[in-house]
Specification:
This protein has 476 residues and is an alpha/beta fold. It has 13 helices and 12 strands. It folds into 2 domains: 307 residues, no CATH class; 136 residues, Glycogen Phosphorylase B (Rossmann fold, 3-Layer(aba) Sandwich). The chain binds 2-acetamido-2-deoxy-beta-D-glucopyranose (8 copies).
């Protein structure tokens, strides 16, 4: 592509594009109207080196500087700083043209109620549990075809480039690993071809390593370490400033992750945060941020053996097992433990009982919030063919932009915990059977595969990010 003299100064616009189609028709498009550069950092960034990493590292960041990049898009000579804004504009022009094609294809799919693909599609989403199955399918096709992410290479392990692969925060490390292992087709070969930029910092690893031994729950060090990283990349490369962070994202499953950006709302105003702890009372904005489903991954293997009885054979009306983590669980346990055979609420799993079997023998699985809003029980419900019962407040549900949760889950407000039995018994059998069937049909979206497969959990997470990128336009 040639450098065009008509390139003008980059402005940031918000277009109420796809989210309109999906789920937030009434929301204001206020997010990106004010366009101001982030304030300069006063923090000491030296420990997240801005310099090329030592040669013991396998990463070589020196080829990443904006000046020395091979020019993917133009014949602009390297080494002339005054040229960079032109490159930037033309990069955005090209990226935006690509996204415009994707939007057009999605619009067409919606109108024609069909899809267009260059490949055989292994899965065709259909059914009322999708807000718009045609839009979703085409959007997924366009994502697989086009979406490219650049993961910044600065910073060192373990805080950057690696995360937990097991237990409750596993999705954080699995995503980072997938993006970093070099096999993903979503990786840009060059930052100039990226639609989105990833800060591959692990909040869980910061908590694990920076806070070791943990003597303080003060989020201060986390906030500073994360901000240092953003400051490094924003100073070193042109990309953050070109969008004021709007095409940049972080991803974390740790409870503390929302705290990262509270300290500096101006800096992170547009920054996309992909979080398990999607608590709307703590600044999570569903139009800008995306919810990460929580997975409890066993140290032994990625997939656990689940168990699922046919719906008619399930003997337990509702099941829960877990600790007294937070007020909601406290209320649930206090009210229901040992009270009713049909509502099996356990503080600890009874001796000799198998968690997966109990889930697979229950019609409804209770998914209350714990110390934070997310629960791995949501994902586990899909694997057990158990209709999830969400007991939380201000939780933005995973993939809510694509999935209509009212069609396959029950929402019970926290204050109605004593009425759980009455509410569930009041759901007609045919209604339950419909929901149960949808739960089993949606299972693939909550399946974590390495390498990932189309429409699985990692693709759904990527799609959440893709959708948010489609929703903004970086004007040139
Ligand atoms: C930054 O941190 C490094 C090492 O932690 C220290 O040597 C240096 O003096 C600090 N600089 C400032 C400006 O605080
Ligand atoms: C890093 O890249 C620079 C410039 O491309 C090169 O001179 C240097 O040898 C590389 N270092 C390593 C460790 O690969
Ligand atoms: C960069 O390009 C401009 C305009 O072409 C020129 O005036 C300037 O001298 C160049 N600067 C360098 C450092 O090459
Ligand atoms: C990348 O993919 C190849 C072939 O599927 C596989 O053998 C290799 O282990 C993968 N690499 C990583 C780092 O996962
Ligand atoms: C981005 O903007 C900040 C604040 O204005 C500035 O300090 C930084 O140098 C800019 N980054 C680049 C790569 O120009
Ligand atoms: C959080 O939930 C409460 C109770 O459901 C509701 O009154 C409040 O408006 C919600 N706040 C946000 C920010 O969504
Ligand atoms: C389900 O129940 C039917 C009838 O009670 C029984 O014949 C069948 O074996 C049961 N299936 C399973 C998987 O338990
Ligand atoms: C969500 O955030 C609000 C406000 O900080 C807090 O009171 C509430 O406990 C949080 N929810 C959970 C489940 O942690």
């Amino acid at each position: 592509m040639e450098v065009s003299a008509s390139c003008s100064y980059a402005l940031l616009l918000f277009s109420i594009f796809l989210i309109f189609i999906y789920s937030f028709p009434s929301k204001q498009n206020h997010l990106f109207l004010a366009f101001e550069p982030p304030p300069a950092s006063t923090h000491n960034t030296s420990h997240l080196s801005t310099e090329p990493l030592p040669s013991s590292s396998t990463r070589n960041t020196s080829h990443l500087s904006a000046e020395s990049l091979p020019s993917a898009s133009s014949s602009v000579p390297a080494g002339n700083n005054t040229i960079i804004p032109i490159k930037k504009r033309c990069r955005l022009e090209r990226i935006e043209a690509d996204l415009a094609q994707a939007r057009a294809a999605i619009h067409e799919a919606i109108q024609k109620r069909s899809f267009k693909s260059d490949k055989d599609e292994i899965f065709i989403p259909r059914g009322s549990m999708y807000r718009n199955a045609y839009a979703f399918q085409q959007s997924h096709i366009e994502m697989v075809k086009r979406f490219k992410i650049w993961a910044y290479r600065d910073g060192e392990r373990p805080l950057v480039h690696s995360g937990p692969l097991k237990h409750i925060y596993a999705i954080e490390g699995q995503f980072i690993d997938e993006i970093e292992n070099g096999n993903s087709s979503f990786i840009a070969q060059h930052p100039d071809e990226a639609h989105a930029f990833f800060a591959p910092v692990s909040v869980q690893h910061i908590v694990e390593y920076v806070y070791r031994p943990i003597t303080s729950y003060d989020r201060d060090r986390l906030v500073r370490t994360f901000k240092d990283y953003i400051m490094v990349v924003a100073h070193k490369y042109p990309y953050w400033n070109a969008s004021n962070g709007a095409d940049h994202f972080m991803l974390s499953c740790h409870d503390w992750a929302p705290g990262v950006s509270v300290d500096d709302p101006e800096l992170y105003k547009n920054f996309v945060r992909v979080l398990c702890n999607a608590n709307m009372s703590e600044g999570f904005q569903p139009e800008r941020d995306a919810t990460l489903p929580e997975f409890n991954i066993s140290p032994l293997s990625l997939t656990r053996h689940w168990f699922s009885k046919p719906p008619q054979n399930r003997s337990i009306l509702a099941f829960f097992s877990g600790g007294r983590h937070g007020d909601i669980r406290e209320g649930l346990i206090n009210h229901w433990v040992g009270k009713d055979n049909e509502i099996q609420v356990n503080e600890y799993l009874p001796k000799g009982k198998d968690y997966a079997r109990l889930m697979g023998d229950s019609k409804y699985c209770l998914c209350p919030s714990g110390f934070e809003v997310a629960s791995p029980r949501l994902v586990e419900s899909f694997h057990s063919g158990c209709v999830p019962v969400i007991i939380s407040s201000n939780y933005s549900l995973p993939f809510n932009d694509v999935l209509d949760w009212t069609k396959f889950s029950v929402n019970i407000p926290v204050e109605k915990i004593p009425e759980i039995k009455k509410i569930l018994q009041g759901i007609p059998e045919y209604e339950y059977l419909k929901m149960q069937k949808r739960v089993t049909k949606l299972r693939r979206h909550f399946q974590l595969n390495r390498p990932p497969k189309p429409f699985d959990a990692l693709h759904m997470v990527l799609h959440s990010i893709w959708l948010r990128r489609l929703n903004i336009r970086l004007q040139h």
